[in-house]
Amino acid sequence: MLEQGSTAAENAVRLFEQIRVRFADHHHAHHLMVARLAEHRAAAGPDPLHEVYDFANWAAEQAPADSPLAILPVIAHAERYRVLAAAGHEPADPAASGHWVGRRARQVMKSAFDWWLEWEHEGHPRRLVDLNFLAHAKVCEGRGAEAAALFHRIGEHPTPAPWSYPDRDPYPAFRAARDHALGTV
Fold this sequence. Notes:
Number of helices: 9
Order of helices and strands: HHHHHHHHH
Structural class: mainly alpha
Number of strands: 0
Shape: globular
């Protein structure tokens, strides 16, 4: 019910709050909520104070230190890029976008990568989702060595999001980014 477009925004917030009462760190619900919030005010263009960034930071701060929700600000950044690129405010090639290299973006990516170095959860069922988002961000940020470390952990397990953003075939996009980061091009 939290899926994009399947319910009104105010109902999505209410549903999300009900999920958090039952399971405060529900990984997938947080990802869906970030995707929903990223859609707001797409026509307004880039906004470093957009609500999706505040929500992601708030959720990451509320979670335990070892929670994978620490990577949620990276997810917010990727989802907002998806929306902005679809609206024509960002280039279709995410690596060519300045969206990933601003001061705030660099801080978000560094914090998430540092969290991964310290707390990576081998057994978390959605860890590959987070690793793919983080690797994508590192590629777009131009941090090939950090992306390479993540690609080694991902192996042959790409996820459609974010490699499909904004409108790309995710598997060739993943392979090209991985090959470039690993120096196998």
